[in-house]
Write a structure and sequence with these properties.
Mean pLDDT of chain B: 94
Number of helices of chain A: 0
Structural class of chain A: mainly beta
Number of helices of chain B: 0
Order of helices and strands of chain A: EEEEEEEEEEE
Distance between the termini of chain A: 37 Å
Radius of gyration of chain B: 13 Å
Oligomer: heterodimer
Number of strands of chain B: 11
Helix content of chain B: under 10%
Largest interface: A-B, 21 and 23 residues
Distance between the termini of chain B: 37 Å
Shape of chain B: globular
């Protein structure tokens, strides 16, 4: 069983719409959650982190965390073609190490 | 800004060669990681290091070794390259005070 699950997509949204990306995880002791954006051929870039239940907003991005449901999401408002990329969810599992477990990513395509 | 650099963006090696991939970070980070990324499999952890001369195996250490002689530098070694090690290799670092990881640009290695 995969520890971090994401729908691979592609998720296609029109320009200006809200893109909703979802991630579920299996470790109930997970503490920290991250969203990375990865353009084709490039390395992952950290865009959001969230540590407690609820919403966290940063510009057009909102991360949402529900630890009871083991669910974390990323909303992108006013989606732009430049947001087209693969979005990776990463989870810091319980324990002392700084290891992250990554999902396989969701490909987002924003249509002009 | 965190700066993580990798020695090569593209590398072509022959089967059986010994391959060195180098990673350098300039932020005095405690932890460094080596991943490989393959389509459909996501990011998989090869090795990580939480201090100079300290290392721990990740999920797929077979065929690889690492070296961390200085805090800023973490090297990945393919003892005898094989075609199934053709992949994108990503280095990341983490300050130790939080769990976020920052990635280098990646090295696309082809073994022929």
């Amino acid at each position: 069983q995969k520890e971090v699950e994401q729908n691979s997509g592609p998720l296609s949204v029109p320009e200006g719409a809200i893109a909703s990306l979802n991630c579920t995880y299996s470790d109930r002791g997970a503490q920290s959650f991250f969203w990375y954006r990865q353009y084709s051929g490039k390395s992952p870039e950290l865009i959001m982190s969230i540590y407690s239940n609820g919403d966290k907003e940063d510009g057009r991005f909102t991360a949402q965390l529900n630890k009871a449901s083991q669910y974390v999401s990323l909303l992108i408002r006013d989606s732009q073609p430049s947001d087209s990329a693969t979005y990776l969810c990463a989870v810091k599992i319980g324990g002392a190490t700084n290891k992250l477990i990554f999902g396989t990513g969701t490909l987002l395509a924003v249509q002009p | 800004d965190v700066k993580v650099t990798q020695s090569s963006r593209y590398l072509v090696k022959r089967t059986g060669e010994k391959v060195f991939l180098e990673c350098v970070q300039d932020m005095d980070h405690e932890n460094m990681f080596w991943y490989r990324q393959d389509p459909g499999l996501g990011l998989r952890l090869i090795y990580f290091s939480y201090d100079v001369k300290m290392k721990e195996k990740g999920d797929i250490p077979e065929g690889y070794s690492v070296s961390r002689e200085k805090k800023e530098r973490f090297s990945l070694i393919l003892e005898s390259a094989s075609t199934n090690q053709t992949s994108m290799y990503l280095c990341a670092s983490n300050p130790g005070t939080g769990n976020e990881q920052y990635f280098g640009p990646g090295t696309r290695l082809t073994v022929t």
